Structure formats: C-alpha cells, structure tokens
Amino acid sequence: MAFDFLGKRVVVAGGSRGIGRAIALGFAASGADVSICARGAQALEATADALSRHGHRVHAAPCDLADASAVAGYVGAAAAALGGIDVLVNNASGFGMGDDEAGWAAGLSVDVMAMVRASHAALPALLASPGSAIVHISSISGFGPSTRAPAYAAVKAAMMSYTRSQAAMLAHQGVRVNCIAPGSVEFPGGVWDQRKQAGDALYDRTLKGIPFGRMGTPEEIAEVALFLASTQARWVTGQVIAVDGGQMLGV
What we know:
This protein is α/β, with parallel strands linked by helices and 251 residues long. The protein has helices at 18-29, 41-52, 68-82, 101-127, 150-170, 191-197, 201-208, 218-229, and strands at residues 9-13, 33-38, 58-62, 87-90, 133-137, 176-182, 240-243. Helix 2 (41-52) links the parallel strand 2 (33-38) and strand 3.
C-alpha cells in the first residue's frame, strides 16, 4: 500500500533514532514536510540530512522532552516552520525500568507527560487541519505486568489508556488518535542490539519467544504509523495495535 502525504506537515517527537527515525523517513518518502526533535545533536543532524534528501521541508531542533516548556517551545517552532501540523507522532521514551524514584520519574516525565504536553501544544494546529491524526508509540509491555521493568510497563499502559480517552475527547473535533504497541525491535545502537553485543541472556530468551524467530525492525513499526495517520485509516480511532510478530502469543 502506497501512502500519499504530499503537502502534509508531520511532527515526530523523538525522531532521530530507531523507530522514530524510520517513521520520520517514511513520512518524508511519502511526500510530507517533517519536523523531528531529540536530545542527541549528532543523531538529530544525521537524520535531518537524510530527511532533506527527499526534497521537502525539514525542521529539526534539540529538545529535552522531560521539560514542559521545552516541549511547548519545540511544537510551536515546528508548527511555524512547517506552516501547521497535520500529524503528531509521540515516540520518545525515558526507558525508566526499575521500581524506584528514578525509573518512575523517567517514564512519567517522558513517556507520559511529553505525550500529553506535545498533544496539548499541537492541538490548535491539528484542529485547523481536516483529517488530522495523533499516533502514540507505546509497547507491548503495557499489556501486562512486569517484574523486570514495572515502571516501564505501567507508563506504557498509561499511554494506551490516554490514547482511548484522548480519542473520545477529540473525535467530535475531527482528530483521530491511535497507538502502536511494538514488540522487541532491534536496530544498531538500540537497547536490544546493546544486549546482543553484551551477550545478555535476556536477548536469546526474548528471541526464542517470538514465533517468527527474529526481532522486529523500525521500518515495520513505521509502516503501521503511516497507515494510522493516512486517509486509509480514516475510520480508525482509539485503537492500540500490537506490532510484535506474535511475541505476545506465548508460543
């Protein structure tokens, strides 16, 4: 299925690496003007350069998504640079894992509150755009309990819940809201790649639990994000879609 986003303005919060990068590149390849933000300047610059090769408007800015004022400032600057916002993708994660203050603070400030704050900041522009959409990137960890990463699982569940509430709040105003819950996704420099390089036994155990026998790719998540933001999904809202190669089947 080919997607046409020519003339559309897309903001990807957390768009310089992995899934976020693949989503941003997917939109750019489909004709969209794209804005991305991230904390790491080197990856941000490299991704902005890759986006620019598609010949459409590109906006990139450093942003600490745990900072409320920084989020609002970034979204406002992105809207000004692109001339509006048609699609907002919230992809960032603080990767707060443990059941301690640091783990909860990281997850709540980035996974949850950055999503809420970016949505609030983008809403005036989204309301001015017929057929606008928000896509949140959560995780299959949010579907159940986790003894290894309780804070991470809890904030991802919160993202799913907010997706449904937000979809209900915005449906009458014409804004669709959906969520993707990726399974284990591997890319160079990512969490699973690091575990693989370190010989972490968790990598092999996780791999054995995926029926297709491999980790997912960022592009496989990006393709679903593009679908959810497209007119082909115009009757889809309030949904959480697992993209995990059957990982949750437990076979």
